[in-house]
């Protein structure tokens, strides 16, 4: 259900569910491992497959039966293939008047070692 042929492929190892109610909908944030975005292409014509890493996904439901996923795959993710990209695990979200705060655990590219806490903030 989390996969998208362009934005997030080979999704596996779904963990760390974090549920919160917002405006009558249940929002479920989870961490999952997969390949994000397009493969990198170099001028000489070579292609480097997108690395697999951990990212944060979002599912929403108003009845807890039908669920919709965030339309572009992960809600916090890279835009291009940066190689050996760090991952995001264990999401927690807080909604404030000033906007939303997403706190997460940073992980190395393998998803084994953690590198600290991260914070992503969006406006109202």
Describe it.
With 124 residues, the chain is mainly beta. It has one domain (8-122). The chain has no helices and 9 strands. Strands 1-2-5-6 form a 4-stranded antiparallel sheet, with no helix packed on it. It has a 3-stranded antiparallel sheet with strand order 7-8-9, with no helix packed on it. Strands 3-4 form a two-stranded antiparallel ribbon. The mean pLDDT is 85.
| Structural shape | globular
On the 0 to 100 scale, the average pLDDT is 85
Distance between the termini: 28 Å
- The percent range for strand residues is over 45%
Helix content: under 10%
Biggest sheet statistics: 4 strands, antiparallel
Output the radius of gyration.
15 Å
Number of H/I helices: 0
Parts with pLDDT < 50 across at least 5 consecutive residues: none
Write out the strand line-up for the largest beta sheet, numbering strands in chain order.
1-2-5-6
| Count of distinct structural domains | 1
Order of helices and strands: EEEEEEEEE
- What structural class do the secondary elements suggest? mainly beta
Topology, number of strands: 9
């Amino acid at each position: 259900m989390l996969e998208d042929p362009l934005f997030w492929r080979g999704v596996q190892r779904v963990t760390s569910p974090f549920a919160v109610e917002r405006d009558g909908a249940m929002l479920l944030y989870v961490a999952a491992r997969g390949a994000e975005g397009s493969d990198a292409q170099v001028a000489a014509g070579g292609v480097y497959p997108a690395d697999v890493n951990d990212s944060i996904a979002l599912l929403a439901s108003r009845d807890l039966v039908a669920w919709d996923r965030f339309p572009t795959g992960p809600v916090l993710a890279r835009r291009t293939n940066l190689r050996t990209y760090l991952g995001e695990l264990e999401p927690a979200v807080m909604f404030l008047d000033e906007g939303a705060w997403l706190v997460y655990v940073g992980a190395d590219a393998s998803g084994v070692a953690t590198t600290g806490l991260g914070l992503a903030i969006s406006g109202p």
